[in-house]
Amino acid sequence: MAELRDDVMVEDAAPLASDTDTPLGPLGHALLHAAQEARTALDTRDPVKSVHDLRKAFKRLRALLRLVRGRKKAHDARTLERALADAARRLSGARDHAARQEALDDLVAKAELAPAHAQAAMLALSAPEESGHATLGVGPHEADLNALVYRCLIDTPRFAGAMSTGQLVDALADDYARARRRGRKVDPADAEGLHDLRKAVIAQRYQMGLVTPLWPRLGKVWEDELQRLRDKLGKHHDLAALAARLAAYEPVAQDEAWHAAVSAAAEARQHRLAHSALHLHRRLFAERPRTFRRRIAAYFDPVSKKE
Which spans are transmembrane here (predicted)? Predict the structure, then answer.
C-alpha cells in the first residue's frame, strides 16, 4: 500500500466531485459519506473502537464500490476495493481474539456449553501476543491507512458522478443476483461457501441503504432482515474459526473434557445456524433478479414517491 508523501498537499489533489458541476447522485453521496466515516474512525482515540469503526467503514465502501460502472471507473473502483480488503485483513488480529470470545459466549447462551468449559477453552486457545492486538489499534499501519482513506475521500465521489439511475439500478440487480446465486447453490456443511455468501449478504445490506430513503418503511424492514441474515452467517463464521483453532490444538489429559464439549457444541450450533440462515436467505431472495430490478426501478421513479 503506497504511503502518502509529506509534500502532497490537499490543494494539489483532484477536486472532489462535489466541487464540480457533476452531481454526485445517491451512490456518490454514499461513497463520500462512507469515506468520511473512515476518516472519523482513524481519528478516534479509543483503539478498539477505532479498529471496529474503520473495518465497518471499509466494508461499506467495498460494497458500494462494487456498484460503480464504466470501464475505466469500474477498474479503478475494483483496484481500490482490493486495497481496502487488504487493509482490513491487516487489522483482523484485533478482531480474532474478540470473535473467539463471542463464539464461546454464543455456545454458552445457545448450545448449553458450561461456562467453565468456555473459560478453559478461551485461556488455552489464546496466543500470548493476541492480548496486545486490541490495544495497538491502527497504530502499526497508521501511515498506510491515512493514505488509503485520503485516496477514498478524493477518488470515490468521482467514480459515481456520471452514473445514470438506470446504471445504478442495473448494478444493484447484478449484486442481488450474485447474493441469490451463492445462497441457492451453497452446501450447508461448506463453511467456506457460507463465508462467501456472508460477504455477498454484507454487500447487499449496505447497497440496500441506497434504496431505503425511497421507501423508508419497507426499506428499513428489508435492511433489518438482511442484517439478521448477516448476523447468523457471522456467528457461523466465528464458530468455523473456533473449530479450526480446536482442530489445530493438541489437548493433554486435563484438556479433554472442555475440548470435547466445545467441539460438540460448536458443530451442533453451526448446523442449526447454517440451516436457519439458508431458510431466511430463501425468503429474502425469493424474487428473480429481473423482477427485483423492475421493483427497484419503480422506487427510483419520482412518480412513485409519496406526495
Answer: none
Q: Cell for 270?
A: 453451526
**Does some domain include residue 4?**
no
Cα separation values, 86 from 166, 171, 265, Å:
31, 24, 33
Domain match, 176 and 281 both:
yes
* pLDDT given for residue 14 in this prediction: 44
Give 104-108 contacts, CB < 8 A, sequence gap 24+: 104/242, 104/262, 106/235, 106/238, 106/239, 106/269, 107/239, 107/262, 107/265, 107/266, 107/269
How many domains are there within the chain?
A: 2
- Report the distance separating Cα 214 and Cα 295, nearest Å: 12
For residue 281, the enclosing domain spans: 94-126+164-302
* DSSP state at residue 65: H
Distances from the Cα of 218 to the Cαs of 16, 171, 211, 213, in angstroms? Answer: 33, 20, 10, 10
Residue 19 and residue 48 share a domain: yes
C-alpha 264/C-alpha 190 separation (Å) is: 17
Helix (H, G, I), strand (E, B) or coil at 135: helix
Are residue 31 and residue 99 in the same domain, yes or no? no
> What's the confidence (pLDDT) of residue 131?
55
Helix or strand run (H / E) with residue 103: helix 93-110
Q: Which residues contact 88 (CB under 8 A, 6 or more apart)?
A: 55, 58, 59
What is the sign, positive or negative, of the torsion defined by CA atoms of 203, 33, 76, 94?
Answer: negative
Closest CA to 63 of 172, 155, 165, 161: 172
- Grid coordinates standing for 124? 488455552
Q: Do 176 and 82 reside in the same domain of the chain?
A: no
**Number of DSSP helices (H) and strands (E) in the chain, helices first:** 12, 0
Q: Cα 258 to chain center, whole Å?
A: 32
**What letter represents residue 198's amino acid?**
R
Residue pair 152/38 in contact (Cβ under 8 Å)? The answer is: yes
Stronger pLDDT, 184 or 47, i.e. the higher one: 184
